Amino acid sequence: MSKGRRTRQLSSEEKRLWSHVARNVKPMKGKLPPPEPEPEEKPATAPAPLAVAPSLPPLPPPAKPVMPPLAPVERKTLQALRRGRKDVDSVIDLHGMRQEQAHFALLHFLHRAQSSGYGLVLVITGKGGAAAGFGIFEERGVLRRMVPHWLRLPDLRPLVIGFEEASPQHGGSGAIYVRLRRRRGAGSGDDSLR
């Protein structure tokens, strides 16, 4: 035993709106045209006509440049650094700086390093010590936490390929190796890994 579908009748307003929509529809090639609407009923008192503005297709979202995901520093490079067979190209020491000052210094350092053709740099953040002697709202180890966050931001992605915590002889958890992209137009003109 199946129930029949209940269909409701369109109101005169809905019929008028459908008629307007159906007039503006053009059938696609190979498709049947839309069904003709039922003739409109003229109500005793006609409501005010609908003011329908012509609709434009929605704009596509702006294209965002696709940045490749961050890649870890290669295992061979990390081993060579630990064993002393390879050294970093340049070093910046941020510990002791305030956040704003450190962020500004890091940005300029990375731009200069890339312009100089450096491939691997060391960023010293400091490990952050105990909060002894500081105010209740004084936070320790802020740069250690913030520098990796900054390196992931879109404004540094054209510079940074990836980063890793430094080995103990370069500062361990208080320092970060940063792998840099080649500058566009340098060498073969590509933006490949070094």
Summarize the structure.
The chain is α+β, with helices and mostly antiparallel strands and 194 residues long. It has 4 helices and 4 strands, in the order ααβαβαββ.
Write the CATH fold name of the largest domain. Answer: Ribosomal Protein S8, Chain: A, domain 1
Strand order of the largest sheet: 1-2-4-3
- How would you characterize the largest beta sheet? 4 strands, mixed
Name of the CATH architecture of the largest domain: 2-Layer Sandwich
How many domains would you count in the coordinates? 2
Based on DSSP secondary structure assignment, what is the total number of beta strands? 4
Shape: elongated
- Residue-averaged pLDDT, rounded? 76
Strand residues, percent = 5-15%
Number of helices: 4
Structural class: alpha+beta
Indicate the low-confidence ranges by residue numbers.
Answer: 187-194
CATH class of the largest domain: Alpha Beta
Gap between N and C termini, in Å? Answer: 73 Å
The helical percent reads: 25-40%
Please tell me how large the radius of gyration is.
32 Å
Question: How are helices and strands ordered from N to C?
Answer: HHEHEHEE
InterPro entries: Smr_dom (IPR002625), Smr_dom_sf (IPR036063)
Protein name: DNA mismatch repair protein MutS
Organism: Microvirga ossetica
